[in-house]
Amino acid sequence: MAWCTVVALACVALPQFVLVEGARGIFSSYTSVLDEKECTCNCCIRELRRPSEVTEQAKYKCALAPPNDSRIAAHGCTETCTVVNDPVFTQASTIEMNRFCFHHCRPTLGGMQTPFKAAVANQNRDALVTGGSLLDAECVSIRPEQLSQAISADGNGKDAQLQA
Q1: How confident is the model at residue 107, as a pLDDT?
Q2: In whole angstroms, how far apart are CA 65 and each of 70, 83, 90, 110, 154?
């Protein structure tokens, strides 16, 4: 019997609180609105690392595809993107897509290794049928168990040096 009274008082008290506060719910407004699209590795391509970044196990990295790449239009990629509750970028909600690609994506195998090899392969008769050779290749999200390699103490991420 007492339980029914408590429930009845709670049901009566809550609408009065909402009416008194003038809100339409418990949360009357958002603290912020994230306008950028969510970050994704679909916007990233494999590219050679700079000479100072190359290590024994890592010759490639992921970066934002160039503006004329078909992935940009297909996925609606922009220079900046949104991350929410991200373990690598703990202090940020909007970051540069290049940073996301570098820390969250790993290069895949495929494509040619150098621009010269791609140009030579595109001179073959087979290139008319197959579409030729590309220098770049796709990037994919790093595995959850590898994510800890990209986390730094300052919340800015670190080079995980993942192999293709």
Answers
A1: 87
A2: 9, 19, 25, 16, 27
Q: How many whole angstroms separate alpha carbon 2 and alpha carbon 145?
A: 51
- The pTM of the full predicted model, rounded to 2 decimals, is 0.65
Please check whether residue 155 is in contact with residue 86, taking contact to mean a CB–CB distance below 8 angstroms: no
**Cα gap 33→31, rounded to integer Å:** 7
DSSP class per residue in 45-108: EEEEPPTTT--SS--EEEEEPPTTSHHHHHHT--SEEE-SS-SSSTT-SEEEHHHHHHHHEEE-
Residue 113 dihedral angles phi and psi, to the nearest 5°: -85, -30
Q: Which residue has the tokens 């429930």?
A: 7
Whether 107 and 62 have beta carbons less than 8 Å apart is answered as yes
Sorted by where each begins, the domain ranges of the chain are 1-31, 32-150
pLDDT digits (tens, 9 = 90+) for 96-153: 999 999 999 998 876 666 667 667 666 777 666 666 555 567 888 888 888 888 888 8
